[in-house]
Each structure stands twice: as C-alpha cells, then as structure tokens.
Amino acid sequence: MKIKYYIIPFFFLSINILSQDSISIKEQCRTKYDSIFKNYFGEKFFRKNIKYDKSQSFIDIYLTNNIENDPEFKRIFLNVNNLSEIQKNIKQYPKYYSDYYIYVFLYKGIIFHERTYTCETVNKKEYFDYENKLILNYYNKIKNKEYISPKKALKIAKINGLKNICYQSLTSVSFHNKNQDVWQIQDCSNEITGKIIELDPKTGKVLTLFKRDYGQSGQAAYWNLFKNRK
After folding, report:
1. Whether 65 contacts 81, CB under 8 Å
2. 217 is in which domain, residue-wise?
3. Which end of the chain is more exposed for a tag (fewer CB within 10 A), N or C?
C-alpha cells in the first residue's frame, strides 16, 4: 500500500539469485517478517491484527541472465499467483528476481494500514523499529478516537463515489498533502487508473480526490482483482 504508491528502489542487494535449473518461487523472507511482527507486537496482536496478503503480493523478474553486462535489460512485475507467467519467464531468465510482500494491519477486522516489504529491509532493525512504532501509533490513535476508524473512512469514501475499494491505509506518504497523516483510499473500478480519495484522519474531511495510473507494480498487485472481472 498506498493512492497506493509502490515506491520500489533499485537495490542489487535485494535481488535473489536462483540456480539455473530452478523455476520455483519461494517466499524466503516471509517467515522473518512474521517473526519480527510477533516480537514487536506480541503473538496475540499478530494473530488478530496482522495479515500477509498473498492476493496482492508480487515479484519482479529481471529479463537478463547477465545483469552486470546488460545495461538495457528490462524487468517485469507479476503477481505471485500468476504462476504460468512466472514459470514461463523464470524458465528463460532464471537468475534474478525480487519479492514484494504485502501486509495489512487491522483494527476490529478492518484494514487501517497497508505496507509493502522486501527482503532488502528484513534485517534492518532500526528501520523496523521506526515503522512498527508508526503502525502502533496509528492503531492507538484510532483506538483513542483521535483518528476516525477505518469503518468510518470507508463510509466517507463510498459517499464520495468510490465503489470497488482495493486499498485503504493511514499514511504520511502523499504527493498532495505533505507533512501530515491522511486516510488514503483507492477505487479499482478502472483497470488503467485508480480513483483516490485522501481524508483528514481527525475529522474525515475530504482533502483530495484524484486519479492515477497503477504502474507495473500496481497492475501486478491487483492482478487477481482484474482477472476475476474478465
């Protein structure tokens, strides 16, 4: 998450190198993330309020077998459930890919935050301490009624015309409302562009309403949603 912005930095360190005869994808960092969340939030909170969303998780595959000497190589993004395309491309380009894990955080069973993780950050304790503190702060602000609940935020979004909601999250990442938290909610009725609403998390006031292309990573994340409409 968020609009859902998939800001994906180019890190060679995050690339998984596969054996030449391997065409299987393994979620090799997911168990590490689960352990991090359990250690920080506690087992009970983890089981109740933190979910791995496989339906939106994705990978990118580097379409080259010699990344250091191929300056014009391309990469593609595929949903982890799009097995036929993954198998086809990894069979031809079996050496490099990166995992992107989508986790959602719930308040009374409804998503209040969504985040994309990679293997690049799994061992960075300072990063995780900061991010987890931020997530817990969002949760407590909803609980203490400083921020409107995800249920109320969704109701406001629907009143303003969003019907097929595919993403909702409290976030401080906004191109339109900088240096503040917003409720960011996205409608995926259109397969090319998403309709996004941003709300003041304290009052529910509509701050911004706009459209934005999903990009390759967004198309991969919502692949299941779009596929089921065809």
Report:
1. no
2. 150-227
3. C
The β-bridge partners of 60 are 77, 98
Q: CA 226 to CA 106: how far, in whole Å? A: 24
Instruction: Give the C-alpha separation, 63 to 219, whole Å.
Output: 18
The burial of 192, by beta-carbon neighbours within 10 Å (0-12 exposed, 13-18 middle, 19 or more buried), is given as exposed
Report yes or no: 216 and 77 within 8 Å, Cβ to Cβ: yes
3-state secondary structure of 213: strand
Q: Please check whether residues 199 and 86 belong to one and the same domain.
A: no
Same domain, 24 and 134: yes
Structure tokens at 101: 């894990």
- Over residues 54-89, the pLDDT tens digits come to 999 999 999 988 888 888 889 899 999 999 999 999
**122/79 same-domain check:** yes
Q: What is the pTM of this model?
A: 0.86
Do residues 29 and 91 share a domain?
Answer: yes
- Measured CA to CA, the distance from residue 178 to residue 115 in angstroms comes to 18
| CATH number where 170 lies | 3.10.450
Contact assessment for residue 107 and residue 89, using Cβ atoms and an 8 Å cutoff: no
Residue in the block written with tokens 């609009």: 3
HSE-up of residue 41 (Cα within 13 Å, Cβ side)? 28
- Residue position matching structure tokens 């799994």: 122
Whether 105 and 19 share a structural domain: yes
Query: What is the average per-residue pLDDT within 135-145?
Result: 98
Same domain, 157 and 137: no
